Amino acid sequence: MTSDQDAPDISLLLDAAIEQVNDRDTISCTKAFAIAQTAGVSAEDVGRLCHQRKIKILNCQLGCF
Predict the structure, then answer these.
(1) What is the CA radius of gyration of the chain?
(2) Is residue 64 part of a domain?
(3) Residue 1 falls within a domain, yes or no?
């Protein structure tokens, strides 16, 4: 288990992922799950942050977002 100091900041990861796509108002479901895994948080946490930032999650195959 990592300490909070070692855990990546979910906001920074999301910002970095959004910078890599053309449309900054959307992110793929695959990328959202990858961010969650890298940050060590739930997909729900990433979804909540995207919702707060008005970022739409596209191509969700599981209906999570």
Answers:
(1) 11
(2) no
(3) no
Do residues 13 and 39 make contact, with C-beta atoms less than 8 angstroms apart? yes
**Spatial distance between the Cα atoms of 23 and 37, rounded to a whole number of angstroms:** 23
**CA pair distance 45, 12, nearest whole angstrom:** 14
Q: Which residue has the tokens 């959004």?
A: 18
Residue in this structure with the two tokens 């970095």, named with its chain if needed: 16
One-character DSSP codes across 26-57: EEEHHHHHHHHHHHTS-HHHHHHHHHHTTPEE
In a domain, 37, yes or no: yes
Q: What is the pLDDT of residues 2-61, one digit of tens each?
A: 445 566 677 787 777 767 665 678 888 888 888 888 878 888 888 888 888 888 888 887
Residue of 1, 4, 2, 50 whose CA lies nearest to 27? 50
